[in-house]
Hints:
Blueprint: E1 9-18, E2 21-29, E3 35-39, E4 61-65, H1 84-98, E5 104-109, H2 111-120, E6 129-135, H3 140-153, H4 156-168, H5 171-175, H6 179-188, H7 191-200, H8 215-222, H9 224-234, E7 246-251, E8 272-277, H10 283-286, H11 288-301
Parallel strand pairs: 3-4, 3-5, 5-6, 6-7, 7-8
Antiparallel strand pairs: 1-2, 2-4
Amino acid sequence: xxxxxxxxxxxxxxxxxxxxxxxxxxxxxxxxxxxxxxxxxxxxxxxxxxxxxxxxxxxxxxxxxxxxxxxxxxxxxxxxxxxxxxxxxxxxxxxxxxxxxxxxxxxxxxxxxxxxxxxxxxxxxxxxxxxxxxxxxxxxxxxxxxxxxxxxxxxxxxxxxxxxxxxxxxxxxxxxxxxxxxxxxxxxxxxxxxxxxxxxxxxxxxxxxxxxxxxxxxxxxxxxxxxxxxxxxxxxxxxxxxxxxxxxxxxxxxxxxxxxxxxxxxxxxxxxxxxxxxxxxxxxxxxxxxxxxxxxxxxxxxxxxx
Length: 306
């Protein structure tokens, strides 16, 4: 069924060039509403948000984009360009391209959220970003500090939390294995098999699965983000604080990110709302209406009234 956009304008496409990449940016929604930018993670593209966008467009100016090396966005093909700092620069370039007359809002998932954390923790971020809703993507620096704190506490509960998060993250070692992981996903990373995984493991309705034609290429290309960031950031974290109001949607059945890993988040964010949701990792696909509802309420709460 086609979406009715009401006072909205139809989708527009443009390209943002930054540091050797061309980012494909898509804009739609209410031209006069607050601007919200949606950022996807691995191995997705802007299509991750196809089920969420229809619930936002009547109230908000909605911007999605393919991150570097995914979908219709290009890259240089290097590992170094996938460092979180560069991806955060990419996000801020998209923010600048929007030319909003007031601070924008952001909704991000997985590695999209990880890179936005880097952006919102930069000095002065609150002047351009009014709110941040994060799903299944912690700051790697916060994760590193949390893991250090669990080991330092040496209590049975703390050590158990550290151990279960390490076990949950063991898959990243395979993802960083180079030719082995690239070959595996080149063979088995098909749209059909991934859709089957989402339906069986994540319990996503077939109708809510949105994958780009470039899915396998995106999956393989995106593996660079693990090699570029995991060890150097989680093992050597620094203190990162944000004054941007933050909302966490924490899926309780996320196999990669344990809910306990967010237990220290209040020391890194001036204002944070936390909501636990019964879902797996791909909440934007599993329950797009719920995601839109939480994001809309948080945006309304932090939108400056004229």
